[in-house]
Amino acid sequence: MRRLNGMATMCIMILFLVHLIWGGLLLLGQVKGGNPVFATFSYAMMVFICIHVLIGIKLTIDTIVAAKRSGVFYWKENCLFLVRRISGFALLIFIAVHFIIFSGTNDDGVYRLREFDMTALISQILMVLALFVHLITNITPLRITLGISDKRNIRTDIAIIVSILLLLSGVAFLIYYIRWQVI
Predict the structure, then answer these.
(1) Residue 9 CB contacts under 8 Å (≥ 6 apart), including other chains
(2) Three-state SS at 55
(3) How many CB atoms lie within 10 A of CB 131?
(4) Helix axes 36-70, 79-102, angle to 10 degrees
């Protein structure tokens, strides 16, 4: 089950990188919206996210059942477990908001988005932060699940790359917000 979750996570990460790059170019006005290929990648990523969520729920239930059987949950020692679950739940909410904000209408060949106001900007920055926490706290379990040794300290490399990409996505959201206010 964990191996399947790890493979689903890798698919999500690959599709997310495509989504991040394409979406960033879209927010910066470099590519046109309403592209069916972009939508297909987004929907494929949503399928893998649903698989990841279902497996995560199953593993969470298994953990809680085991804790009840033993009579002790070790809240302090399992703090990281709780952070992973809370950040994942927050991401589900923010992904739903992201979908609502960026799903537009295609009128006469022109793709129209909803207005990107301060509330939308704040929700998207919070999504980036929740994603950062979720990715950073789950790098080690994913690495272990996929059998990747950490001889080179790959966690630091991944953390730096993820930090830079998420920072750039936050900047793209901010530029997009400014463009909405100016234009």
Answers:
(1) 52, 138, 142
(2) helix
(3) 22
(4) 150
Q: How far apart (Å, rounded) are the C-alpha atoms in residues 96 and 138?
A: 21
Longest dimension (CA), the chain: 62
> What are 76-93's pLDDT values in tens digits?
778 888 899 999 999 999
**Residues 6 or more apart in contact with residue 30 via CB below 8 angstroms:** none
C-beta atoms surrounding 75 within 10 Å: 10
Q: How many residues comprise the chain?
A: 183
**CA nearest to 16, candidates 146, 126, 169:** 169
Q: Are 139 and 155 in contact (CB under 8 A)?
A: yes
Judge whether 20 and 165 are in contact, CB under 8 Å.
yes
Task: Give pLDDT tens digits for 62-75.
Answer: 988 988 898 877 77
User: Which residues have CB under 8 Å from 120's CB, separation 6+?
Assistant: 101, 114, 177
pTM of the prediction? 0.82
pLDDT value at residue 61: 92
SS3 112: strand
User: How far is CA 61 from each of CA 64, 85, 101, 175, rounded to the nearest angstrom?
Assistant: 5, 11, 32, 41
